[in-house]
Design goal:
alpha/beta, Rossmann fold, 2 domains, 7-stranded parallel β-sheet, 10 helices, about 35% helix, about 15% strand, disordered N terminus
């Protein structure tokens, strides 16, 4: 159902949102709209009135985003922007002086902590210990102690080095791990060896851990595939907190069953939800969470705060955070 917040606003200043916020987050959004003199439209998924808006916040229809002459700025409530990563949209927005931003800075911290937690859990054999507690309730000290290891001095290759990868590199720094990041555009970063995408197969054999935060795009679909997985160091561990479509899951299954990979952790799969009879669920040393890496208490409030900060910048003509287009 659509509701409207009436504000003292000049004609043509409309903020459209279909994020479904409630409570404190909704109150903050309403206050921001009133403060900046925007007429606030809280829309459902019908995208009614989107073409009349000045600003869109949420997950607006990409085609309306492309064609609407009125939309000046779109902020997504996600870090991912696959639906909007189109040549026609990338051409249309700059042509009319419009901007697209995402919410990477809301999800970099939880996603980085999530990956870090699994890195530690696998290193310290916490998952087999919990499985023992849940089932046999034995006392497997002898197998678990020697298989636990220290992360210090091990090598991590980060596939993708945006906000999530950069925050993860900061979390890994105290452990004195060697961090190599694969990025489309090579830029220097403290404590990290940043290499070009063309160097991927050169650095993969060095990695004890490969952590992907790659977004889905035509160039990243199937990035980790049957040709690339054999390049991994034997016994390496693979983690995916990016998008499921960036991994060839049949090839991943083969690498796990052969033992070439010692473990995999997947927060994302293709498709989602992963069917209950999919073999990944029962593959040894494959651990799955249901796309929860970015989730955290206060998520809605932080999304609105990020938008409000960008709204102030938008009004003052300053640079927007997390600009995509």
């Amino acid at each position: 159902m659509k509701a409207m917040q009436e504000n003292d606003h000049p004609a043509g200043r409309t903020l459209w949102c279909n994020a479904g916020f409630s409570g404190e987050a909704l109150q903050q959004l309403q206050t921001a709209a009133a403060t900046h003199h925007y007429h606030l439209i809280l829309a459902d998924d019908s995208h009614t009135d989107l073409a009349t808006a000045t600003i869109a916040f949420g997950q607006p229809d990409p085609e309306i985003v492309r064609t609407s002459a009125r939309l000046q700025w779109i902020q997504l409530t996600s870090a991912g922007y696959t639906r909007y990563d189109r040549d026609d949209l990338r051409a249309a927005l700059p042509a009319r002086g419009a901007t697209l931003t995402n919410s990477s800075r809301v999800f970099d911290e939880p996603c980085a902590q999530h990956a870090f937690a699994m890195l530690l859990a696998l290193a310290r054999e916490l998952l087999p210990a919990y499985e023992n507690q849940r089932t046999e309730r034995g006392w497997p000290t002898s197998p678990l102690r020697p298989h636990s290891y220290l992360l210090n001095g091990q090598t991590v290759v980060l596939l993708g080095f945006g906000a999530i990868g950069q925050r993860l590199a900061q979390l890994l720094a105290p452990l004195e791990m060697q961090v190599i990041a694969v990025r489309r555009t090579v830029q220097s970063y403290p404590g990290v060896e940043v290499v070009a995408e063309a160097d991927t197969d050169r650095v993969l054999p060095l990695a004890d851990h490969v952590i992907s935060s790659l977004p889905e795009s035509p160039s990243t679909r199937g990035f980790v595939d049957a040709a690339r997985l054999p390049v991994f160091k034997p016994g390496a561990r693979f983690y995916n907190i990016g998008r499921g479509a960036t991994v060839d899951q049949e090839a991943l299954l083969a690498a796990l069953h052969s033992g070439h990979l010692s473990a995999a952790y997947l927060d994302v799969t293709d498709p989602e939800p992963l069917p209950s009879d999919h073999p990944l669920w029962i593959t040894p040393n494959c651990y799955i969470t249901p796309h929860t890496a970015g989730g955290h208490a206060g998520e809605e409030v932080r999304l609105v705060q990020h938008f409000v900060n960008n709204l102030s910048a938008f009004e003052s003509g300053a640079a927007l955070t997390d600009r995509v287009i």
